[in-house]
């Protein structure tokens, strides 16, 4: 296992701290975003006003946005359908299948796409496998669903290795 496969390109406090201007400067035309604990808290399927504002800002800037989630169709649909956002469910992250399905729908060159997620083991690893840039954000809430607890334990080990090689991970208020 190469530890670089888990190293995010950028680290940002929260998805809402990613400014449209910064995405444009990087040439980003499409944002793929994880759902649970990235876009919405896993225990709040309706999201927040801050989330809605960020989604509209990205869309208004002409940047495509698509949710790529390992969750069920029902859960993802409930969270994003009212925003007119496309999504891929059962994405099978850390594999690239879901990201590749999203890219096929969006028809955007990989060099102009970024994946935003809260987990090194799934979101960042899948982005590397798909050949796109990645942004790691802090989880919106500190407690996870049962399904995520196993990944978090493994993630702590990977984070120690990343920090031993690259230094402490610093989260910023923007890119």
TrEMBL record:
Q: Which PANTHER family match?
A: 4-NITROPHENYLPHOSPHATASE-RELATED, PHOSPHATIDYLGLYCEROPHOSPHATASE GEP4, MITOCHONDRIAL
Gene Ontology CC: one annotated term: cytoplasm
Instruction: Spell out the Gene3D superfamilies in the cross-references.
Output: HAD superfamily/HAD-like (3.40.50.1000)
What is the species of this protein? Streptococcus danieliae
What is the protein name given in its UniProt record? YqeG family HAD IIIA-type phosphatase
The signal sequence is: none
GO molecular function (one) = phosphatidylglycerophosphatase activity
> Pfam families of this UniProt entry?
Hydrolase_like
Q: Which domain of life is it from?
A: Bacteria
């Amino acid at each position: 296992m190469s530890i670089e496969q888990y190293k995010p390109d950028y680290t940002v406090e929260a998805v809402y701290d990613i400014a449209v201007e910064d995405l444009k400067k990087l040439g980003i035309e499409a944002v793929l975003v994880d759902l649970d604990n990235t876009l919405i808290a896993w225990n709040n399927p309706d999201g927040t006003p801050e989330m809605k504002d960020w989604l509209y800002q990205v869309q208004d800037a002409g940047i495509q946005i698509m949710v790529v989630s390992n969750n069920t169709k029902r859960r993802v649909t409930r969270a994003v359908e009212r925003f007119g956002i496309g999504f891929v469910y059962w994405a099978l992250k850390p594999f690239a299948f879901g990201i590749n399905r999203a890219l096929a729908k969006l028809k955007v060159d990989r060099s102009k796409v970024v994946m935003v997620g809260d987990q090194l083991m799934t979101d960042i690893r899948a982005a590397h496998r798909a050949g796109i840039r990645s942004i790691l954000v802090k989880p919106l809430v500190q407690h996870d669903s049962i399904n995520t607890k196993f990944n978090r334990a493994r993630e702590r080990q990977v984070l120690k290795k990343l920090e031993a090689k690259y230094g402490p991970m610093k989260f910023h208020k923007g890119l």
